[in-house]
Amino acid sequence: MMMPTTKTVAFFGASTGVGLAALKHTLAAGHKCIALCRDPSKLTAIFPSGSQPNLKIIEGNAHNILPVLQCLQTDDGRIVDVIVSTIGAKPTGFSVDDPDVCKKGAATILDALDQLRSSGIHGKPHIIATSTAGFSRFVRDVPLAMVPVYYLFVSVPGADKVVMEDRFSQSGESFTIFRASHLVDGESNNKIPIRVGIEDPKTGPECMAIGYTISREDAGRWLAENLVLKPNPKYMNKNVTVTY
């Protein structure tokens, strides 16, 4: 079945960072977006009321089934075309505030899809879930000098993201796992080429891209352009790494 010209995209975790950048580019392309936020004021400060008619903001937690169910339904009674999840934990020293945030979010999204279909609401969305480089089961996918950094500071959230990756890749849903190298602040820079690595979750790397950093703005822009707006079939049901 062909995807409609105007898509409806559900965003989880789009109030900052990669998710916010992807949301901005998706809205700019004229698509409808539904964003779930624990604190809607973060998005209304960026998109004042009435300034963006294609954006619906729903207050709630991505671990709560009821607001997630709302977020996954279009106005005309379908399941949304695309789901973008960029939820993640906040760092607290050597750990994070919620070491299970991603795996719980994945479980809630999949449970919500099952409930919607059981109630007669149809649709097969493409799920895009943001993970991180550094945790491939097949190869070292970060520079050697970064391995101690990932071990010390990213091992806890990384383990959570590995479980999330498995839940989506084994769900039977259409998915892309989006892995970025170390995320930094800064404006989008079209002059810096973005390199892309592709890994099959079952058989391993198809092409490698190992790098140190990428800005949140560029990562979000790439996600929107290549996975949401004009999705490239070669990234379907794959783990995709982006880096400078």
TrEMBL record:
Name of this protein: NAD(P)-binding domain-containing protein
Family: Belongs to the avfA family.
Gene Ontology molecular functions: biliverdin reductase [NAD(P)H] activity; riboflavin reductase (NADPH) activity
Matches recorded under InterPro entries: NAD(P)-bd_dom, NAD(P)-bd_dom_sf, Polyketide_Oxido-like
Domain of life: Eukaryota
Pfam family name, one: NAD_binding_10
Location of the NAD(P)-binding domain: 13-226
Gene3D superfamilies tied to this protein: NAD(P)-binding Rossmann-like Domain (3.40.50.720)
